[in-house]
Design goal:
Layout lengths: L1 E9 L6 H17 L3 E8 L9 E7 L2 H9 L1 H11 L2 E10 L1
């Protein structure tokens, strides 16, 4: 099993709470659309001392499944919304 962990930081002038909540909601629907995605957890940062805004943890069986997830149209659609306000992204993929 592969865990895909991503931390996002958004442009504070563009990233309003409503947009971040919309992104969270859209990401959380992906397991019902993308069969390779076994589980997803999305968290909005509540700590004002930290600059990161959103975390995503996703579980998939293999790296090939991760590649399919990354290219799925539903993932690409929410990714476009993320990129419109994104300033930084950090990702780690590891075995669990």
């Amino acid at each position: 099993m592969i865990r895909h962990l991503v931390i996002f930081e958004f442009d504070k002038t563009k990233a309003k709470q409503e947009i971040i909540q919309e992104i969270k909601n859209e990401l959380e629907t992906l397991p019902t659309i993308i069969p390779e995605l076994k589980k997803i957890e999305v968290g909005i940062n509540i700590n004002p001392a930290e600059k990161q805004d959103l975390s995503l943890t996703a579980d998939l069986d293999t790296l090939d499944d991760l590649a399919l997830y990354n290219q799925h149209p539903a993932h690409l659609a929410v990714g476009a919304k993320i990129r419109s306000i994104l300033t930084q992204r950090t990702c780690v993929d590891y075995h669990i």
